[in-house]
């Protein structure tokens, strides 16, 4: 098999990713090595290959995540209490609720309050992976209120 030449910087970039061909009927994808194989490189040039790493680390995905979490949503205190009671364990509920109330009234920590409310509403919609973000938002609010 004859070797082929590609520019050095492009070759470095192609080595960093996991390149896959489109899925077949069963959902299986074949791995490609566009920096090593001419056939895979031509498929890359045509745009048929996809980089698996791009789907996880893309900037668009981070921006979409931030839009979900950082929207300015204010809920009544009674509703906030039900949110805290539903997601936080019993011995930490009171302190977490008080922290969120203080964060709601603070200019520094109001972002953590919004993160908690938005993450909890996403958990209610069925996206269970946002449950940890609720707890992280409370910790972030505590940290911001100390400073």
Write up what this structure looks like.
The protein is mainly alpha-helical. It is 61% helix and 4% strand. The protein has 8 helices and 3 strands. Strands 2-1-3 form a 3-stranded antiparallel beta sheet. Helix 6 packs across helix 7 (110-124) and helix 6 (93-104) crosses helix 8. The chain is elongated, with a radius of gyration of 23 Å.
Task: Tell me the layout of helices and strands.
Elements: H1 8-16, E1 19-20, E2 31-32, H2 38-46, E3 50-51, H3 52-57, H4 59-69, H5 77-87, H6 93-104, H7 110-124, H8 131-146
Antiparallel strand pairs: 1-2, 1-3
Helix pairs in contact: 5-6, 6-7, 6-8, 7-8
Q: Which percent bin holds the helix content?
A: 55-70%
Radius of gyration, Cα only, in angstroms? 23 Å
Mean pLDDT: 87
**Strand count:** 3
Report the total helices: 8
Tell me the strand percentage band. Answer: under 5%
* Sheet with the most strands, sense and barrel status: 3 strands, antiparallel
Q: Order of strands in the sheet with the most strands?
A: 2-1-3
The helix/strand series, from N terminus to C terminus, equals HEEHEHHHHHH
**What is the straight-line distance between the termini?**
64 Å
Described by the principal axes of the CA atoms, the overall outline is: elongated
In terms of per-residue confidence, which ranges show pLDDT below 50 for 5 or more consecutive residues? none
Structural class: mainly alpha
């Amino acid at each position: 098999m004859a070797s082929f030449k590609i520019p050095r910087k492009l070759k470095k970039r192609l080595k960093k990713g996991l390149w896959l061909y489109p899925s077949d009927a069963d959902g299986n994808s074949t791995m490609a090595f566009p920096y090593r194989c001419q056939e895979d490189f031509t498929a890359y040039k045509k745009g048929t290959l996809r980089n698996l790493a791009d789907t996880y680390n893309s900037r668009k995905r981070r921006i979409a995540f931030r839009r979900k979490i950082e929207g300015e949503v204010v809920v009544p205190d009674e509703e906030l209490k039900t949110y805290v009671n539903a997601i936080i364990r019993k011995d930490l509920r009171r302190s977490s609720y008080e922290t969120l109330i203080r964060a709601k009234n603070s200019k520094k920590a109001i972002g953590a309050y919004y993160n908690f409310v938005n993450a909890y509403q996403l958990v209610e919609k069925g996206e269970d992976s946002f449950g940890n973000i609720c707890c992280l938002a409370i910790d972030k609010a505590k940290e911001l209120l100390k400073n």
